[in-house]
Specification:
The complex is a heterodimer of chains A (888) and B (78).
Chain A (H helix, E strand, L loop, with lengths): L22 H10 L4 E5 L6 H14 L3 E6 L7 H18 L16 H13 L4 E6 L7 H12 L5 E7 L7 H6 L3 E5 H4 L3 H11 L6 H11 L3 H12 L4 H10 L4 H12 L2 H10 L7 H8 L4 H11 L3 E3 L7 E3 L1 H9 L3 H20 L3 H10 L3 H17 L3 H9 L3 H6 L1 H13 L6 H14 L2 H22 L2 H14 L5 H18 L2 H17 L3 H17 L3 H17 L5 E2 L1 H14 L3 H10 L5 E2 L4 H15 L3 H14 L11 H11 L3 H11 L9 H16 L3 H17 L3 H18 L2 H15 L6 H4 L3 H11 L6 H11 L18 H10 L5 H8 L3 H15 L4 H10 L10
Parallel strand pairs in A: 1-4, 1-5, 2-3, 3-4, 8-9
Antiparallel strand pairs in A: 6-7
Chain B lengths: L8 E8 L6 H5 L3 E5 L3 E9 L1 H13 L3 E8 L6
Classes of the chains: A mainly alpha (888), B alpha+beta (78).
């Protein structure tokens, strides 16, 4: 399922034995290898690839290994590019006797995870490695360059990157240059100097030329190597070399036109026919040449061309695949006589059939389009659509379908619908609705079976279109239709619709429905092997279960997700780290702080990667944990960081960080801060109830209660109960009932307080949800004592009371002299204070703001009774506080 | 003054050396003339920016020396 890796592209090209070794350039490259990046930038035919191959041979003896990729047009999208780069690095690792962790699950689009994974893997390799990307000019995709920039800027010291290109790439070259991290070799460096030209003619081409002739040739070609090679080939057929040089030097013609004509004139008829007949192939083998030329001498001719050095490049060591030098191929095609030109469409068709038979559908499609035989191309593309979709080859899918006449595309609904996904991904909505209607009309005309096959995709795209317009109601209707109309086996479409409906139900607070949809979504995705996507849905299911008050269900589904991630043996699956954060929350609810801490630590272990929201999610749970451990200062710092790192995603925001921060402020009795939050969020007792505001309204009730207004708090809570109940949000119901109990108690109605408390206990007991009560402190303990009384008293209440006795389960044994222990975060800061890093550098290392860092530093100074960084570090060392390094 | 990138315009490209006329078809250009100063003029190229860049890229890939690219104003000021 993975994008096919074309092995020949990862092979360092073979060097001809008679290559001119260019000392001055090899030295330049050697010096350049001290820097981060070498750029070899010059037009075609300047010997870039040859130079690099020659250099790498010397590097190999120096014990370095190499990851080489010869890029081509099909690599101009992330899916193909990173697959090849990862495979090349894998090969280099193997050469070092090591294995690379699996970085790219087959069903996953390469993303920042892949890049980071690759960087880490490179850093972890025991050896030095050169990464070469040749022909980088074929890459144009801006997003790909953004990722490549990130890659280059974060390379470890054992890696050197070399780029071969005809045009300067859109990388931050000026910045790299300024920092001395870039070495450049350009056309002016690469052109043959007169002495090199002389040595080329004498030693490689075995031509005896006078210094005068060499100089004329050098001037006429301006040291352009491709032209000098062509000149050498032409001269072989000439007896009067002086005359040849004079004519050539005196001509105004484009040098390549002039010389190719000369070279071709010297070739026997069958060789000429072979060259013209194969010029349009981006790569060829003897077998393929025989097939399209209807000849049997492919092997012999290729050997002859190679021996004559007729711009043929060997792509592997088995002497199986070859290509022409790009410049030569282009010129051959321009110089093709009319008789040959007429045969070109048929040759492309033959090549297309041959590649299809031999399992290279990309090349088959390319040749069918080049013929052009649109009917054949349409057939091939139609067959490739499901596979291209699964491999996320959006760019390839779009460009190949768009290369067909629109009438033909519309006549084949599979193609017309296949084009919609890539267009929507690119943000193009114009004409899509009409295209979908047109496809549906045609399918209807060809019968129910045809319609059934595609109706799921059509309705799903209609839903997506409505979502992009912001019309959620219409989006929902179309997503529902996917379920009604698409067959059972349309897993991808059904999963897509389920995911969307799951979010709608979640946002509306109908958690039972949300849970059902998300289960359908992850089951469907798993069924068709989209494990990475399934895992990110599993985190959502865990979250929903927690709100439903079903900690057991949450634990079960999260554990299943972790097991799936573990089966993927080290693939970096986005979302696998989030699963640990989900588990930490479950453990926290149950009062198992040690397990919760462990899960937060595990969430950062190697091979796990988070979704974009991960950093913020993790800090939120760490804050809740700090809160439960009574470290309110730490909790507020963590929540501030969480708010800063928070990024939007598709999930509804049902627990705003600002409201969580307000809850901490309530515990700190920091009333001005709570009032600020109320003003900013606009939460007032008469605000209309809705699920997305529920958490804030409960926060408000807590505020009213804490300020001594239990009547107002109770009235608000009463109002919230019915919606929470009908939405199946029993976790919320339990919290509301507990708060109601506290309100009744404050009002003085003991029996009402007990019945509310009893309902909360009944909901929490089966799930072992102890923290709900323990976090409320003494006021709650008093009510529990009442509930535990007598024979019919609640056993759960008695257990909870027992737990009150052993509060603060994690005494931090740091140092007896330390009155107040340092928090984990403060210890992190302290370790970095010991380093050479400046304040802003430490802040960036810890991913906190400078202000947050100052707060931490101030607290550390206070706790250690010091007033400088140096004193703090000395004191910490005396007290042995830094011995156990926590893995950050 | 400014023309949106999407609007096609007419361009002229001048190259060093005489490029064989057979290239006109491969470059998708109808008008290719050799000037006595040893340059080639590709004229009446009706192109939007994407097509223009495509032609320039082909010129780059052939190792041709680019001398100038000029947009021909359809309404020259009197």
């Amino acid at each position: 399922m993975a994008n096919p890796v074309i092995a020949t592209k990862l092979r360092v090209p073979r060097l001809r034995e008679d290559t001119v070794h260019r000392r001055r350039l090899l030295e330049l490259l050697d010096d350049g290898a001290q820097s981060r990046l070498t750029l070899v930038s010059a037009p075609a035919g300047f010997g870039k690839t040859t130079l690099l191959v020659d250099w790498l041979a010397t590097r190999k003896t120096a014990g370095r290994s190499v990851a080489w990729v010869s890029l081509d047009q099909t690599d101009n999208e992330a899916a193909a590019f990173w697959v090849h780069l990862v495979a090349a690095v894998g090969g280099a690792a193997k050469a070092l006797g090591q294995a690379l962790p699996a970085l790219l699950p087959p069903d996953q689009l390469p993303g920042r995870n892949t890049t980071v994974g690759l960087l880490n893997a490179l850093a972890a390799l025991g050896g030095e490695i050169d990464v070469v990307l040749d022909d980088l000019h074929v890459i144009e995709d801006a997003a790909l360059f953004e990722e490549l920039t990130f890659f280059i800027e974060h390379l470890s010291d054992n890696v050197h990157v070399v780029l071969g290109t005809r045009a300067d790439p859109p990388l931050p070259l000026a910045r790299l240059r300024a920092r001395g991290e870039l070495t450049e070799i350009r056309a002016a460096d690469l052109r043959f100097r007169p002495d090199e030209a002389a040595s080329y003619f004498a030693d490689t081409a075995h031509l005896t030329l006078g210094a005068d002739e060499v100089e004329k040739l050098e001037q006429r070609t301006e040291g352009w190597i491709a032209a000098l090679q062509l000149a050498a080939l032409s001269m072989r057929g000439h007896t009067d070399i002086d005359e040849f040089v004079a004519n050539f030097a005196g001509s105004d013609r484009y040098v390549v036109d002039y010389l190719v004509e000369e070279v071709l004139r010297d070739q026997p008829e069958d060789v000429r026919e072979f060259l013209f007949g194969t010029a349009a192939l981006s790569r060829f083998s003897a077998e393929l040449c025989d097939a399209i030329l209807g000849r049997k001498d492919g092997r012999a001719t290729i050997d002859e061309l190679y021996q004559k050095n007729l711009f043929i490049v060997a792509l592997d060591d088995q002497r199986q695949w070859y290509r022409y030098h790009h410049l030569f191929a282009d010129v051959l095609q321009a110089h093709m006589p009319p008789s040959e030109r007429d045969r070109l469409p048929e040759r492309h068709r033959q090549a297309s059939l041959w590649f299809e038979q031999h399992g290279d559908r990309d090349e088959a499609i390319r040749h069918a389009l080049a013929a052009p035989d649109f009917e054949l191309a349409a057939q091939l593309i139609e067959r490739a659509v499901p596979e291209m979709r699964q491999r996320r080859r959006v760019a390839m899918l779009r460009s190949s379908i768009e290369a067909l006449p629109d009438a033909l595309v519309r006549a084949r609904p599979a193609l017309s619908i296949g084009l919609v996904g890539p267009l929507l991904t690119a943000g193009i909505t114009e004409g899509i609705a009409e295209r979908l209607d047109d496809a549906e009309r045609r399918l209807r005309a060809s019968g129910d079976a045809a319609l059934r096959e595609f109706i799921g995709a059509i309705e799903l795209y209609r839903s997506a279109l409505a979502q992009m317009r912001g019309d959620m109601r219409v989006a929902e209707v179309h997503a529902q239709r996917v379920f009604e109309l698409a067959p059972e086996e349309a897993y991808l479409e059904r999963a897509g619709a389920a995911g969307f409906l799951g979010i709608v139900a979640w946002t509306q607070g109908d958690l039972d429905a949300a849970q059902r949809y998300w289960k359908d979504c992850s089951d469907g995705l798993l069924h068709i092997g989209y494990v990475a996507d399934a895992i990110s849905t599993i985190y959502a299911r865990g979250q929903i279960s927690i709100v439903q008050g079903r900690l057991g269900d949450a634990e079960e589904v999260l554990k299943r997700g972790l097991a799936l991630a573990a089966e993927r043996k080290g693939y970096s699956l986005p979302g696998s780290a989030d699963l640990h954060v989900g588990m930490a929350e479950v453990d926290l609810c149950r009062g198992d702080f040690a397990a919760a801490h462990q899960h937060l630590t595990d969430s950062e272990s190697i091979g796990l990667t988070g979704m974009p929201q991960f950093a913020s999610r993790k800090l939120v749970i760490a804050a809740l944990l700090a809160c439960a451990e009574n470290d309110l200062g730490e909790a507020s710092v963590l929540l501030d960081d969480a708010a800063r790192l928070s990024v939007g995603d598709f999930f509804p925001v049902v627990r705003p960080i600002a409201a969580m921060r307000a809850r901490v402020a309530i515990l700190q009795q920091d009333w001005p801060a709570v009032d600020r939050w109320r003003r900013a969020s606009g939460v007032e007792p008469d605000l209309a109830q809705s699920y997305v505001r529920e958490y804030e309204l409960i926060t408000l009730a807590r505020h009213l209660l804490a300020k001594g207004d239990p009547l107002a708090a109770g009235a608000l809570l009463d109002r919230l109960i019915p919606a929470a109940q009908s939405g199946g949000r029993y976790g919320v119901v339990a919290e509301i009932e507990l708060l109601r109990a506290l309100a009744w108690d404050a009002i003085g109605d003991g029996s009402a307080a007990q019945s509310s408390l009893r309902r909360a206990l009944d909901l929490a007991e089966p799930e072992g949800w102890t923290r709900l009560f323990l976090d409320e402190g003494e006021r709650c303990a008093k009510l529990l004592r009442e509930a535990a009384k007598g024979k019919s008293g609640s056993a759960f209440a008695r257990n909870l009371l027992g737990a009150f006795g052993v509060q603060q389960p994690m005494p931090r044994a740091q140092h007896p002299d330390l009155l107040e222990p340092l928090s984990d975060r403060e210890l992190d800061v302290l370790r970095l204070l010991r380093s050479e890093l400046s304040g802003p550098e430490i802040a960036s290392e810890l991913r906190v703001s400078l202000n947050t860092l100052r707060t931490h530093t101030k607290n550390i100074f206070e706790k250690l009774s010091v007033n400088s960084r140096r004193a703090a570090v000395r004191r910490a060392e005396e007290m042995n506080l830094l011995r156990s390094a926590r893995t950050a | 003054m400014t023309t949106p990138a999407a609007a096609p315009a007419t361009y002229e490209i001048r190259l060093l050396g005489h490029l064989d006329t057979r290239w006109a078809e491969r470059l998708g250009i109808s008008d290719l003339t050799h000037d006595p100063d040893g340059t080639t003029l590709l004229s009446s190229i009706a192109a939007d920016q994407a097509v223009l860049h495509g032609v320039l890229q082909r010129i780059r890939d052939l190792g041709l020396r680019l001398i100038s690219v000029q947009r021909i104003d359809p309404n020259p000021q009197p």
